[in-house]
Backbone:
């Protein structure tokens, strides 16, 4: 299935679906997990030690603000990992007393 029918460069956008904290989220093949999350309207998906919301900051995998758990693997940089159809993503919290 194509999402774009008249792309001037002939791209064929293929939809994918990931699960974020138990909820299905739609994306397009080739997007990073951060890209899928941002496109779905999510701006933050983890909290730092103080409880402040964190999301994408640098967008190139240097700052580690966008960490998520993907398919059971903790501390994956959402901005550097391409989303794959069927991925299970869990947000993280580093707030004091919360090990998730």
Residues:
């Amino acid at each position: 299935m194509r999402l774009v029918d008249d792309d001037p460069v002939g791209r064929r956008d293929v939809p994918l679906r990931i699960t974020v904290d138990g909820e299905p989220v739609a994306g397009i093949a080739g997007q990073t997990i951060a890209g899928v999350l941002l496109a779905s309207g999510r701006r933050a998906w983890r909290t730092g030690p103080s409880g402040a919301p964190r999301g994408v900051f640098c967008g190139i995998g240097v700052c580690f603000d966008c960490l998520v758990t993907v398919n059971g693997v903790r501390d994956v940089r959402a901005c550097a990992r391409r989303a794959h159809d069927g991925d299970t993503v869990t947000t993280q919290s580093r707030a004091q007393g919360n090990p998730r």
The first strand starts at residue 15 and ends at 20. The chain has a mean pLDDT of 89.
